[in-house]
Amino acid sequence: MISAHPARHLLRAKDLVDARYREPLDVKVLARAAKLSPAHFGREFRREFGESPHRYLQMRRLERAAALLRNTDRSVADICLTVGLRSVGSFTTSFRRTYGMTPTQYRAAHPPALTRVYVPTCVLMAQARPETARLEKTGEQALASVASE
Q1: Which residues contact 91 (CB under 8 A, 6 or more apart)?
Q2: Among 11, 25, 55, 119, which is most exposed with the fewest C-beta within 10 angstroms?
Q3: Does the predicted TM-score (pTM) go above 0.85?
Q4: Which domain does 144 fall in, by range?
Q5: Residue 13 in contact with residue 53, Cβ under 8 Å?
Q6: Are residues 25 and 90 in the same domain?
Q7: 62 and 94, same structural domain?
Q8: Distances 147 to 50, 139, 143 between C-alpha atoms, Å
Q9: Using one digit for the tens of pLDDT, what is the confidence trace for 58-100?
């Protein structure tokens, strides 16, 4: 039996982080998903992806928190708990290190799109029309004009 390349096992753990970042995940759980020992998993993950498993998990959580800050009006504490972090103070510190500003400052700097851009309903509806309907009409008109000649 041929064993899978170690990177394939590592991708299982990476996919687990991407899917379940809200849950309390540690190196043991991720190593089990990759079917490696925790120490070997940590070394291989860092070698393959350029960062530790903990740092990768932290970045996924902070990226999701940034998206929630941009797109919702939920409190910073609620967002912190939603993305799987337990301490608002640690969340704020990590967020500032990563994004260069506190979560509150980040939200103020990135207002929701609805407050920045107004798109008229007629434009939205025109964009929602199926592309095939436009092509079929154009094709029929072209055929009719060729047939009449």
Answers
A1: 65, 76, 80, 85, 103
A2: 119
A3: no
A4: 119-148
A5: yes
A6: yes
A7: yes
A8: 64, 12, 6
A9: 999 999 999 999 988 899 999 999 999 999 999 999 999 999 9
